[in-house]
Specification:
single chain; mainly alpha; 80% helix; globular
C-alpha cells in the first residue's frame, strides 16, 4: 500500500499536458539525432530503426520520471518548479536509456553520446517546459 501512496504523490492528473509534451520533445530530439547519423532514405527504408532508437530512452522515461516527480503536483505549478524536476528526471533516465542501448538494444553508449544525450535531453525537456509555462 505504501507504493501506491508514493506513486499517488508523484502523479498528478493536471500533468497530462506535460507528459504529452515531454514525449514529443524526446521523440523530436531522438528523431533529429537519428537523421543526423543516417539519411532520411535509410530511416524510411528501415521503419523499425526509429523504434529501436526511441525504445531505450522512452522505457527509461516511463520508469524513472514518475519516481523523480516529473508529473507531481509541484511539476504543474510553475516553470521554476517544473524545469528542475524534468532535468532531474532526465539525468537518471538517460543513464537507464544508455544502459539499455548498451545491453539490450543496438546502438551502444559511447561516452561522447552519453554527454550529448544528457545535455541535449536536458535542454529539450527543460526548454519545452519553460515554453509551456510562458504561453500557458
Amino acid at each position: 500500500m505504501a507504493d501506491s501512496s508514493f506513486l499517488a504523490t508523484r502523479l498528478d492528473r493536471d500533468a497530462v499536458p506535460l507528459a504529452v509534451g515531454d514525449l514529443i520533445a524526446l521523440i523530436v530530439l531522438l528523431t533529429i539525432g537519428a537523421i543526423n547519423h543516417h539519411s532520411v532514405e535509410y530511416i524510411s527504408a528501415n521503419p523499425l530503426y526509429l523504434l529501436e532508437v526511441y525504445a531505450p530512452f522512452l522505457i527509461g522515461w516511463v520508469l524513472v520520471a514518475p519516481l523523480i516527480g516529473a508529473y507531481s503536483a509541484g511539476a504543474v505549478e510553475t516553470a521554476k518548479s517544473s524545469v528542475p524536476l524534468v532535468v532531474r528526471s532526465w539525468i537518471p533516465t538517460a543513464i537507464v536509456g544508455l544502459a539499455l542501448r548498451a545491453f539490450v538494444f543496438r546502438g551502444g553508449a559511447a561516452p561522447a553520446f552519453a554527454v550529448v544525450m544528457l545535455v541535449l535531453g536536458s535542454i529539450a525537456l527543460g526548454g519545452w517546459r519553460a515554453l509551456y509555462f510562458k504561453f500557458r
